[in-house]
Amino acid sequence: MTRRTTEERGERGAGGVRKARETRGIKGTKGIAMHGKRFKGAALLLAAAVVLAGCGADGETDGGDGKVELSFANWQWLEPGRGERLWKSMLEYEKVNPKVTFKKVSATRAEYEKTIQTQMGAGTGPDVLIVPPGLLYQLAAADLLVPLEGVAEDPHLAQETHKGKRLAYTWEVVNFGFFWNKKLLGQAGVKPPTDMAGVLAAARAVTAKTGKPGFAVRSSTSELNPWWADFASWPYGFGGGWSKDGKLTINDPKNVEAVTALKKLYDSGSMPIGDDASTFRSRFANGEIGMMFDNASVLFTILEGNKQLTSEDVGVATLPFPTGNSSQITNFVGVNKHSKHQAAATDFIKWLGSQEGQRVSAEGLFPTLNATATPPPDDIAAKYPWIKVYREQAKTAQGSPFIPGFELSTPQISTVVMKAIETVLVNNQDPAAALDQAQKAAEAVKQ
């Protein structure tokens, strides 16, 4: 059996986009200016952008009955299982406000940001959109999001606010955890580890006794962006971080400890070196890998409908780092400044932030958390009892993959840092020396 996670299966679809009701083409032009400003960070790659289906901010008009159709863009609509559940949960708003209907707008995760950038830069795009953290900083800098007024506050208000204006509401929070195959650890004669030394010892034991990889995480710049997001928990977990008080701290001694810990696992002979995340996640689902650090959505996808490996077969704990700290990924929801239905779109986000909206989204977004960490329905929580651990990890998560104070230049800095870490893993460069070099290179990147 080969299983793919929701983020990987979301890459599928003809031409990378699933059509919804209708498709409108947008002609890409190199160097589109955003209200006189150009996006910083990743290149727009306009000519290669995949067109989002059915966006409604391009002059589309509604009928004379006062009804409004809001186009709603999200790559998660394509996720098998959760995507349809999530979409149905949002349709609950149509019952609350019968004058509004939603139009599903889908694009693969890989193409999502550059497609949104292309369309909004051209003065079009969806009315409502899910905004990954990196894209939030770019759209905010280009003044392409509608300031939200009258939306309930949530614990992530600081991240949602830019230059004194609240530009988004938190859609979901993705946390990381530690999980293992109980059978393989039992065959190896080891108890679930509670610290990194124990993880290393258990990984070696699983491989020695079963011949299967004992531990798996991303470890290659061939998956640079997702590896950066996954690895972000390591420096925080060791008590470090990438910046402090407005200065980069790439070579912080605690960060060196984190890289050293990964290097020990990499050299242990117990990791499936060369496997990408799609491969080693599928191998875990098939009972072929001992332990992993990964996010809640990955574990949910591995277990959902899996008769070979069930929730009862998997142990779950918070990350076994020296501190309880970790990273988390926050995705947001906002309103396109080019939308012709800004008031209606904002009213929807107001509902989303209400007690009823949070109750509905908690079920749709499961296993990730919504803005207020509203618990999922009891029957879902009972079916997946391990979600309690991820919710516990969320209480001490203190960072994100984006470097505080250097958000717009994080893409360039992350490339420098992860290439340095790869030289440690592959070429045996000293971790401290590698991060010293990365510190100098990162400081040369302009914010």
Beta-strand portion reads: 5-15%
Q: Please provide the count of β strands.
A: 13
- Compute the separation of the termini in Å: 46 Å
Q: For the record, what CATH class of the largest domain applies?
A: Alpha Beta
Instruction: State the low-pLDDT regions, or none.
Output: 6-51, 56-61
Mean pLDDT: 87
As for the CATH topology of the largest domain, it is D-Maltodextrin-Binding Protein, domain 2
Helix share bin = 25-40%
Which overall shape is indicated by the principal axes computed on the Cα atoms? globular
Q: Tell me the name of the CATH homologous superfamily of the largest domain.
A: Periplasmic binding protein-like II
For the record, the CATH architecture of the largest domain stands as 3-Layer(aba) Sandwich
Number of helices: 19
Radius of gyration: 22 Å
Main beta-sheet strand count, sense and barrel state: 9 strands, mixed
Class from secondary-structure proportions: alpha/beta
